[in-house]
Amino acid sequence: MTNIVAGGLAPNFSLKSLDGKDFSLSAALQSGPVLLAFFKIGCPVCQFTFPFLERLYQRNKSSNATIVGIGQNGPEKTAAFVKEYGVTFPVLLDPEEKGYIVSNAYGLTMVPTLILVDTDGSVLVSSMGFVKADIESIAAQLAERAHIANAPLFQSTESVPAVRPG
């Protein structure tokens, strides 16, 4: 479970990205909604989910929405994950050796956890594991905000389960 649920407020935080840049949730929210995607490199459900998040990012990268991964491993292992799964959106580091500061602030107990935060800091979607309907809801909300067509994120030729627990 996470203590950050839809309708609640997302705690502000600052982390470094894999490429050493500073990221602040409050600063990113000034541009538009932010999708936080918490993960660990050895998590099979994270490995399954992240290519779909990359697809979502590609659809929305010209919009005002921000999608960030938040890795719970060190930089070397996280960089290898990013490369292996073709992730091009920014990835932040919240590693164990620093006490999972942000993950703990969000009360995470499993990964992946996806949290869509509105510009006022309120949580629009809070989802743990892989929940197809939640990801579709996130895609629809981001498309609506960007005034783009909400094309299906999952293709009819793909075998995508409704749920895969983290």
Protein model, in words:
- The chain is α/β, with parallel strands linked by helices and about 170 residues long.
- It has a single domain, classed as Glutaredoxin.
- Helices cover about 30% and strands about 20% of the residues.
- The strands form three sheets. Strands 5-4-3-6-7 form a five-stranded mixed beta sheet. A two-stranded antiparallel ribbon has the order 1-2.
- Helix 2 links the parallel strand 3 and strand 4.
Index terms:
166 residues, alpha/beta, Glutaredoxin, two-stranded antiparallel sheet, 9 strands, 22% strand, globular
Write a compact overview of the structure shown.
This protein is α/β, with parallel strands linked by helices and 166 residues long. It is built from 5 helices and 9 strands. Helices cover 31% and strands 22% of the residues.
Report the strand count: 9
What percent of the residues sit in helical stretches (DSSP H or I)? 25-40%
How many whole angstroms does the radius of gyration measure?
15 Å
Question: What is the count of helical runs?
Answer: 5
Q: How is the quaternary structure best described? A: single chain
Strand/helix succession = EEHEHEHEHEEEHE
CATH 4th-level superfamily: Glutaredoxin
Q: Specify the structural class.
A: alpha/beta
Distance from N terminus to C terminus (CA atoms, Å) equals 11 Å
| Largest beta sheet: strand ordering | 5-4-3-6-7
Unreliable runs: none
Give the second-level CATH assignment, the architecture: 3-Layer(aba) Sandwich
Please indicate the percent range of residues in DSSP E strands (runs of 2 or more). 15-25%
CATH topology (fold) name: Glutaredoxin
User: What gross morphology would you assign?
Assistant: globular
Instruction: Please give the domain count.
Output: 1
Mean pLDDT: 94
What is the C-level CATH assignment? Alpha Beta
